[in-house]
Amino acid sequence: MSVLAQYKVLPQISSGSAMALAVAARAPYAMIPLGTMTAVTASTTSVATGGLATAFVSIALAIASPLIGRWADHQGQRFVLSLLTPINAAALALLVYTSATGNDGPLLWLSCILAGGTSLPIGSFTRTRWVTVVKNQRELNTALSYESTVDEMVFVLGPALVGIAASAAVPVAPLILAAVLVLLAGVPFALTAPGP
Questions:
Q1: Number of domains in the chain
Q2: Among 17, 41, 102, 121, which has the minimal tally of Cβ within 10 Å of its Cβ?
């Protein structure tokens, strides 16, 4: 049986709409670093400032992700996601503002740290959900294979989406799109999370 044929069982375990929601909810995670670079570089006309802003986002994201995961292990996904998802949307809105205004001071660095530090590792949360709903090891292997495929797609298409949005609209458009996705996909993903 081909891998794609094996994937057909997954919507019977977790609904197709839930799977699509998880894909949309994880897209901002892949878009925010490059979106920051694009927006800040364009508004400040400084590649160095754009790179520094991206470093703040990426380092905050790398430090916070395992801490968020551990927190969810203790408090449950629903609590952590319901708290952090709106904070992440607000942090992205602040990053959009600081990027659009050409700010290159402490407010920009703070908004970068907040946006990165509250970005949610949706892929990890989704894998945990699969573990609780599959019936056997074969289904789990199929689900984890699917998740790896989705991760690769998101991390390839996310930056492409950043480039398209930035060139078709304005340089901060990718960050605006990321904030919208956090609200439209991240909030429902949070509300459908399992409790403690």
A1: 1
A2: 17
DSSP 105-156: SHHHHHHHHHHHHT---HHHHHHHHHHHH--SHHHHHHHHHHHHHHHHHHHH
Q: How many Cβ atoms are within 10 Å of 155's Cβ, its own excluded? A: 15
**CATH assignment of the domain containing 47:** 1.20.1250.20
pLDDT tens per residue across span 139-171: 888 888 889 989 888 888 888 888 888 787 789
* Residues in Cβ contact with 95 at an 8 Å cutoff, skipping those fewer than 6 apart: 36, 39, 111, 112, 114, 115, 175
- Which pTM was predicted? 0.89
Q: What is the pLDDT of residues 11-42, one digit of tens each?
A: 888 888 889 999 999 999 889 999 999 999 99
Closest CA to 140 of 128, 150, 123, 155: 128
Q: Does 2 fall in a domain? A: no
